[in-house]
Amino acid sequence: MPPTIHPILRQSFAVIDEEMEEHSFSADEYAVVRRVIHSTADFEFQHLLRFSPRAIEDAIATLTQGIPIITDVEMVARGIQRLAKDTFNNPIVAAVTTAPVAAPGKTRTETGLLHCLQQYPTAIYVIGNAPTALLALCQHLETASALPSLVVGAPVGFISVMESKAALALQTVSQIRIEGRKGGSPAASAIMNALMMLAWDRHHSSALS
Q: With contact defined as beta carbons under 8 Å apart, do 61 and 79 qualify?
């Protein structure tokens, strides 16, 4: 069954379309930006989102293959699980749940994320809360033999947040970032939900052509 778009969501998108400033986003990038604005009611995200070349294409290609999605925290996992089930049923793992205790000098989320990188090196990684996890991921990427299919870097807060996003920007991995202090689980979930809808539409358009 194809995922449905609630009438209120359609109305909200129409309001965003009317109020959106002029921009240079591609149609696919705009679909992501619009979903984040809808989830946060914050138009500033149109100035904060960054897409590496082919980030959306890479995400679509791997989502349709059922690749695992690794989130930093459970809130992000919950925010994407319904649409994931309705589209390609990608396995979802919240990294923090894989670490009953933190390794010395690390947070539980950081510990769990490093464990997931060993088990799922090419998965999609979505960081919506924990900058320590994003920093650990970036450090891992410097020597990794296999790269994630996509990294969504959207932690929120004041401590190590901007540093973690700057570290991600230096990596060659396919990525979507939210610059500055803003981000959070709703924004990270919105990015993934937009990507899953794009992947669904692309997959079924190809099947019909």
A: no
Among 6, 38, 47, 115, the active-site one is: 38
Report how far residue 83's alpha carbon sits from residue 87's, in angstroms, rounded to the nearest whole number.
6
Query: Average pLDDT over the chain, rounded to whole?
Result: 95
Is residue 76 a contact partner of residue 188, using CB atoms and an 8 Å limit? yes
Neighbours of 5 (CB within 10 A): 10
The CATH code of domain 48-208 reads 3.40.50.10230
pLDDT at 5 over 90: no
Got the DSSP string for 10-53? HHHHHHHHHHPPP----HHHHHHHHHHHHHHT-GGGGGTEEE-T
47 given a catalytic annotation? no
Q: Where are the domains of the chain?
A: 48-208
